[in-house]
Amino acid sequence: MNKLLILFVGIGVWILSTLPVSADVSLQKLIDETPKNGELKLDAQKYEGNIVITKPITLIGKKGTVIRGDGKGNVILVKASNVTLKNFKIENSSLSRNSGEEYSGIRSMGDHNQFIKLVIHDVYHGLFLNSSKYNLVNDVKVTGQGTGKLGSQGNGIQLIRTYNSIIENCELTKTRDGIYVEYADKNEIRTNQVSETRYGLHYMYSNDNTFYKNHFNKNTGGAAIMHSHGIVLKENQFSFNQGSRSFGLIIQTSSSNTVLDNEFYLNQRGIYLEQSTQNRIEGNKFFHNEIGVELWTTSTSQVFTKNHFKQNVANVLTIGGESYNQWNQNGIGNYWGTELSVLDLDQNKIGDSPVEYRSSLYKLIEENELAYLFLKSPAIKIYEKINEVLSTQKVMVVDEFPLIKENQPSRVSLLYPAVIPVILILGWFFIKKRRSRLS
């Protein structure tokens, strides 16, 4: 009899924990009454925050479910592990910067938490993961107040001392930084869309993170890696990042990072390197940027190989003096868009002589930062041409093993149609002359 009673009680608790709830009841009370590891389903209504979660539960909304804060703190504060928040909107955290805490739509301090299909707006930080690990953030949309208010708002997603977490399929726009990572190692950030921010991604003192297939469009800066090591950036797209001294990617005071198979398109500067060493830049495409790669003399021992440079105003500029970097590895250099002027007698798709890339634009930039604003001007092409005629350009890059694209005819192969008839004619005259002598 006792076992049967316990069974009925257990079934009752489970039913109560999974029933839809009404917004007429305090959401905090409903959360407090939900058992550990229970599931709380919300109606398509607006619920008043702020709320605190101190135990493992699952909170699921539906289309039209909104949790609105009182504008004085975090809308949702998660102090527990194994918490799942899914499928609702969050709004109206405190925007104050005068408190001891920067408030958020969600602030989470637990491990193994999941944040799925959430929409967050009118908050300081969107989602703040603090001192935690093994979290999942999937399909979260955060919208800020726009570039005119960057100083009064926070980041879309912020990770501080957070490890082994995944951020994927998120859309972040008009925040200060899209994703901000500080003292946070071994996280994976993939397939996110970030636009209209200061920096789309901002790493500070964070190591061994992976950054994969993200898109950064129309930011002041696409991604910033600062004081960080062991970052892998692979197959990301950095495009239309324009403004005063803008860039697709900046690597500053960082080393041993890998930039692999990314696309840099229509940025003021594709990659900007300063005070950094031993980074590997491989297989990237630099198309239609004002400057493909900007290297300051403080950055040395980088390896550039298999990169494509095409139709940039300047493919590479070295600023502040000569910079010692490697523009090929194991006999494999880069594509410079100069295939028609490179001999490839053995047809191995590697040029038989080095490519020297020269420019005079470095002088303008060293003397005046305002020069960045005029790189698109037709006058820049005239300036480069005059310096080329006067032989006052400086060698920016020497690539000992320039690559020739597949299916792209080299200079020698283009000569074949003209050379073969000449050889045949000369051969015919030689044979005819020899026969006349014999006769």
Q: Helices and strands in order, then pairings?
A:
Blueprint: H1 2-18, E1 20-21, H2 27-33, E2 39-42, E3 46-48, E4 51-53, E5 58-60, E6 66-68, E7 76-78, E8 84-91, E9 104-108, E10 114-121, E11 125-130, E12 136-143, E13 157-160, E14 166-168, E15 171-173, E16 177-182, E17 188-190, E18 193-195, E19 199-204, E20 210-212, E21 215-217, E22 221-226, E23 232-234, E24 237-239, E25 247-252, E26 258-260, E27 263-265, E28 269-274, E29 280-282, E30 285-287, E31 291-296, E32 303-305, E33 308-310, E34 314-319, E35 355-359, H3 361-367, H4 378-389, E36 394-399, H5 411-438
Account of the 3D structure:
The termini are far apart. The protein is elongated and about 110 Å long. With 439 residues, the protein is of the alpha/beta class. The longest helix has 28 residues, at 411-438. The model is unreliable at 15-23 and 410-420 (pLDDT under 50). The strands form three sheets. It has a 22-stranded parallel β-sheet that branches. A twelve-stranded parallel β-sheet has the order 4-7-9-11-13-16-19-22-25-28-31-34. 16% of the residues lie in helices and 35% in strands.
